[in-house]
Fold:
Amino acid sequence: MPYKAVRVTKGRGGWGGPLTIRPTDEKKLIYCVTGGGIHPVAQRIAELTGGVAFDGFRSSAPEKQIACVVIDCGGTARVGVYPMKKILTIDVKPSSPSGPLMQFIKEELFVSDVKPDNVAVVE
Structure:
């Protein structure tokens, strides 16, 4: 199945992006680390791209399979960890670069305050 691309833009109080997410057969997971369950933003990305929504809070998968990660962190831990690993990171909370990993939080790797309406198919 061919995967589609989506553009993820920052919300009203957000920072970063926009990010373009296009899963591949090797990187098809829309990895969700939001406290259990699949967040509506991760679900929307998976539905629009053909990727696979994955609950990374309850289980784990190899990083090489992750197309992007959806987090809900208003602090400094997950906000910086995934960008440090060069994984496209979508925070559903309004956050911006801060903390000990802030040098890794770049606009091309991170976007915040994302709602389902901030995810659109790229034509």
